[in-house]
Write a structure and sequence with these properties.
Helix content is 97%, strand content 0%. By secondary structure, the protein is an all-alpha fold. It starts with a helix and ends with a helix.
Length: 62
């Protein structure tokens, strides 16, 4: 019985250490994806703004 508890305790510690390692990685991945999405959205806004400025200039030139 003592060996089973020791094994269970060791197994539990290994699982806990794996959870600690997995959480930061998944958080970093989430942040990375969010940063990529934000950069993409900012780029799209810049392109849209430039297109609107170009359209506005073309409208006044005609």
């Amino acid at each position: 019985m003592n060996n089973a508890r020791l094994t269970w305790k060791e197994l539990s510690q290994v699982k806990d250490s794996q959870r600690r390692r997995v959480k930061p990685e998944s958080i970093n991945r989430s942040i990375s994806v969010t940063e990529q999405e934000m950069a993409h959205a900012e780029f799209n806004l810049q392109v849209a703004s430039q297109e609107l400025q170009g359209t506005d200039k073309n409208y006044h030139c005609k």
